[in-house]
């Protein structure tokens, strides 16, 4: 059974409003929605604004699919830290007899999922996870490190009627791999650029220290350490709550976690550090519709100029 994430009345009201205005379409599963052409156009225009800021850095562009190797996810440590969010693709692998059982269960309205087995594919939880082994396989990093521009649909199992907390959503990321100084300089730059972009869209926001939703008692220690070390910042926009605004951009410093894990290193064997800035594309679009209304043609001229020129 799904462990639903509680959504307050304001979140449900916003979701109903997005449905009523034909911007999102229900699927029968909380957090899984169709998007209208207008919704997609806003995301496309926002992405173009992000690219305008990021293209000056000449990042290498790589887009991975929304599925990744299960072995890669296992090695990454994601299942240790966030088992509650992960999703694995299962498929039917039986023969004729098992197929007959499957059809009988469906006809009877019984649970047929036990007749499926896990495949070698997991759903991608963050756009950058498939990147690190890919780069490590190339060999030693150059002294100047590397910069990448990524985009992927991502999955996190947290069904909710909060439209800003989808189970399948798109993430745009810039990932810097290099020395600690190179990575921290990258993050400082994007903290400034990201906040400037959101301000230019007429959206209220602020940046704050944050932590990931680590699982269990040990996770509380990891979360505290993440905050105390200043490894994660989030840009927060009030969407369904003023008191608990929604994280729409994140600015993360992984230290040498992925460098050591994947033997991602410089020519002298020193593990590389990494960091990323992530843009939650659906969340920013929903913030724009929430604060400026359902019809982009009626948005403030200054906002339209940023997005449509």
Automatic annotation (TrEMBL):
NCBIfam families: PRK07080.1. Keywords: Ligase. GO terms for molecular function: ligase activity. Its EC number is 6.2.1.n2. The lineage of its organism: Bacteria, Pseudomonadati, Pseudomonadota, Alphaproteobacteria, Hyphomicrobiales. It comes from the Bacteria. This is Amino acid--[acyl-carrier-protein] ligase.
């Amino acid at each position: 059974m799904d462990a639903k994430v509680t959504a307050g009345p304001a979140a449900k009201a916003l979701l109903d409003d997005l449905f009523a205005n034909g911007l999102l379409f229900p699927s029968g599963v909380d957090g899984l929605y169709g998007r209208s052409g207008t919704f997609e156009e806003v995301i496309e225009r926002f992405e173009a604004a992000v690219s305008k800021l990021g293209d000056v850095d000449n990042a290498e562009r790589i887009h991975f699919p929304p599925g990744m190797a299960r072995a890669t996810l296992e090695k990454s440590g994601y299942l240790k830290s966030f088992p509650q969010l992960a999703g694995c693709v299962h498929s039917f692998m039986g023969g004729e007899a098992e197929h007959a059982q499957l059809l009988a269960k469906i006809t009877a309205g019984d649970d047929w999922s036990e007749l499926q087995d896990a495949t070698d594919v997991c759903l991608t939880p963050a756009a950058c996870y498939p990147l690190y082994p890919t780069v490590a396989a190339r060999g030693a990093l150059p002294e100047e490190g590397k910069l990448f521009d990524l985009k992927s649909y991502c999955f996190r199992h947290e069904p909710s009627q909060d439209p800003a907390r989808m189970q399948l959503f798109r993430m745009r990321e810039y990932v810097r791999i290099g020395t600690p100084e190179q990575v921290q300089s990258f993050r400082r730059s994007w903290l400034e650029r990201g906040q400037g972009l959101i301000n230019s869209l007429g959206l209220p926001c602020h940046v704050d220290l944050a932590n990931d939703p680590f699982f269990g008692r040990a996770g509380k220690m990891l979360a505290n350490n993440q905050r105390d070390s200043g490894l994660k910042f989030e840009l927060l926009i009030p969407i369904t709550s003023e008191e608990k605004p929604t994280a729409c951009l994140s600015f993360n410093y992984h230290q040498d976690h992925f460098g050591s894990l994947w033997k991602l290193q410089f020519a002298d064997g020193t593990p590389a550090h990494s960091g990323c800035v992530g843009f939650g594309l659906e969340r920013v679009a929903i913030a724009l519709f929430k604060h400026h209304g359902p019809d982009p043609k009626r948005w403030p001229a200054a906002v339209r100029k940023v997005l449509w020129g």
